[in-house]
Amino acid sequence: MAEGGGGVFMVEGGGSIRRRLYKVTRESSFVDVGSFSPGLYPLEKERRDAAAEERSFLQHFFLGEAEEVSADDLAAEKTRRREQQKEAYQKVLLEKNEKREELRKEFMAQAARLSHNPDYAYPNGYMMSHGLSYALKKNWRKAVVASKQEDEGASEEECVDLEPLFFDEAEAVAEHAAAEEKRKQKEQKEQEEAREQQMLLRRWKFHTSVLNSILDYNHKRKRFYFRRFNFADLSTFDLDEESLLGPMRYTGYPLLLDGTVCIQGEERFLLNDSINVLSVKIASSEVGFPINVYGTVIARDSLDKKCVYLFRRDRNHCQLINSEDDLLILTGPKRGLALTSVIYFEMDLKIKSGQGKNDRQLSNGFLTLDAVARTSWDKMKVETDSLDTKLGVLEVTYAIVKRAVEATIAIEVVEGEFYGKITACTTNIRNCMVLHDSNVADVITCDGKRVVQMLRPTVAVFVKEKLEVTGVAQTGVGEVESTINFTPRASGVDEDEITCGSVKMLVKVSWSIIAR
């Protein structure tokens, strides 16, 4: 806009409305109006460039067309413009500082984006400002610390005696109760964990003490060894507890055999392997023979790993061993032994002397019969294992029985008086096991029946062979022998009579599987 030959103009440019008054005469070339620039440039070169740009703009469009004004008016206008520019600059600085403070507070609230010590943050709150001197940085840190302390104090004072706008007392009580319950549960859990840790520690100490009690030193082999079974948690496992599993556990079950497979309803399963302990003898003695022996020989199988006694005599009922050919009189096992993983034989035998304090340890240790090494065997065989201990060597002879069933034998005298031996064996393994010896056991009367006392009543039998029971009766003219056979079954009872001279006996065999 122009008035007359020279006057007041409104110039639009740079994206914003700029209002300036200029004095331009037709005779003069151009008035320097660089000082009217609205921006306060930090460098003189940039300010001069901006002034030259405006001067060039006015020369091209308004030269010779502006109205002449007085020098005083021009000076007043320049002063007013400078004040406006100063106010605008201060306003911009204030807005920048406010934005910077908001940004700093925002990042101060995000702990993950700050350094470990936020009191020493830089002015922007989260990154380094390379343009600040050390003194400015130090002053800024102090200001940040003071500002935080003031904000914390003010917030505490402002929040005194204040309640939430929508305060629900019932909800607050419920939240408090829930928090208290959670705290109690946490304390209870910690107490239970502490008790459990103490219990485990006590159990470990007890287990260790039992291990130390069964640890011994073999002077012959010059090494330490465990005298007893130790492959269990001895804090809860009783080494002296007798197995509660008895014979004939599955005699009354409706079980059928299909080869080596047992059938119960729709279920089919293979029979377990087993062993027959044929004999235990003292193969050598460093103190010579004869000796009076007492103590225990036990077996542990995988069914419960508890004691199944094979030989058990106290000091008052010791057995006289005259030579290395004499066998220990076995009185077990009372049930079939399952050869599914490992069977352990523990020996604890002593030699009786004149006084109890002078009794010597003949043998103290255990043997291991591993079933895994024998899983590929198809044939049954007899094995012997020996235990070399303090004063002698013990030999254990046993027969491996594949796919076995348990036969429990009971004998009743029907006619005559029996005195002699009763043995049992199988058709494949002819080694006999003594079931009764009248020199050791008698015929007793029970419920009006004369029952033969059995030393060891059970025999393991392969399902594809036969069980043989032999009676040898001593008469006035000599020995009379008789044998009867039984075909194995998975369950049930078989009976048959055997006659030895004038003696007639009823043999009863109860069949059962050993385990499933």
From TrEMBL:
KW Coiled coil (keyword) present: yes
Chain coiled-coil ranges: 169-202
Keywords of the record: Coiled coil
Keyword Coiled coil among UniProt keywords: yes
Transmembrane segments: none
Cross-referenced InterPro entries: DUF6598 (IPR046533)
Pfam families to which the protein is assigned, alphabetical: DUF6598
Limits of the DUF6598 domain: 275-509
Protein's UniProt name: DUF6598 domain-containing protein
